[in-house]
Amino acid sequence: MDVTSVIRESDAELVEPLLRLAGDDISHWFDATTGDLRTCIDPESGLRRYRLPGGILANVPPIAPDTTFDMSYGEVWWRRKELLIGRLSKRTRHLRLVNMLLGSEHTMEVCAEQSLADIQENYLQYNGHAGSYTWKRMGSQAEGAGMVNLDMRLTLEENGLLDHGSELEVLALPDSFHVPAVYLYFNDDLTVA
């Protein structure tokens, strides 16, 4: 999140944790399901309150009712979509892209949550005609062991390219030990003249 505007709009003491942790990952402050700040039970009052590991924050109401608390800010800063500049990937993985027409190969680090269409967008730096290719993977024996067309709307995992990173980690093998491949077959479709 880009919280520059929150820092400008708020009292210094209410943004001190944000300033102190500028550039650091604070995703652990938030509930992954709700997107809201994590909560806890206050030991003194027994009431649910926001958990504030870094100290008091802008837009966080006090535990007890307080008529002096300013609620004119509208939506709390951590829910403001215009401040969102990206998502933290749960895991990245390496992927080999093999151009069957040119015989070239590029290894890219991609986010597990990315669709193949997003990966293709990043691959444009290597091949400006990336949209003119059909993306395939090797099929399993159950699939007939031939090449399987990939759905560009889906992630690698959803397309059957499983992530074996955690298994490699248990075996103390580097991620580079097994890098799955996607094979790009040229379509003579004249998408780019």
Task: Give structural notes.
The chain is α+β, with helices and mostly antiparallel strands and 193 residues long. The chain has 4 helices and 7 strands; from the N terminus they run ααββββαββαβ. The chain has helices at 4-9, 12-20, 116-123, 165-170; strands at 39-41, 48-50, 92-99, 105-111, 133-138, 147-149, 181-186. The strands form 2 sheets. The protein has a 5-stranded mixed β-sheet with strand order 4-3-7-5-6, with no helix packed on it. A two-stranded antiparallel ribbon has the order 1-2. A hairpin with a 5-residue loop joins strand 3 and strand 4. The mean pLDDT is 86.
For the CA atoms, what is the radius of gyration?
A: 24 Å
Strand tally is: 7
Estimated helix fraction: 10-25%
Ranges where pLDDT stays below 50 over 5 or more residues in a row are none
How are helices and strands ordered from N to C?
HHEEEEHEEHE
Beta-strand residue fraction: 15-25%
C-alpha geometry: elongated
| Mean pLDDT rating | 86
Secondary structural class: alpha+beta
Number of helical segments with 4 or more residues: 4
What separation lies between the terminal Cα atoms? 40 Å
Strand arrangement, largest sheet? Answer: 4-3-7-5-6
Main pleated sheet? 5 strands, mixed
